[in-house]
Amino acid sequence: MTLSRVSVLGATGSIGVSTLDVIARHADQYQIHALTGHSRMDVLAEQCLLHKPAFAVVANAGQAVALQARLHEQKLQTQVLHGAAALEQVAADAEVDVVMAAIVGAAGLRPTLAAVRAGKRVLLANKEALVMSGALFMQAVRDSGAQLLPIDSEHNAIFQCMPGNYADGLARVGVRRILLTASGGPFREFSVEQLASVTPSQACAHPNWSMGQKISVDSASMMNKGLELIEACWLFDARPDQVEVVIHPQSVVHSLVDYVDGSVLAQLGNPDMRTPIAHALAWPRRINSGVAALDLLAVGRLDFHAPDNLRFPCLQLARQAASAGGTACAILNAANEVAVAAFLAGRMSFTDIPVMIEHTLSTITSEQVQDLDHILLADQRARTQAEKWLARRS
Ligand code: NDP
Ligand code: MG
Question: pTM of this prediction?
Answer without folding.
Answer: 0.98
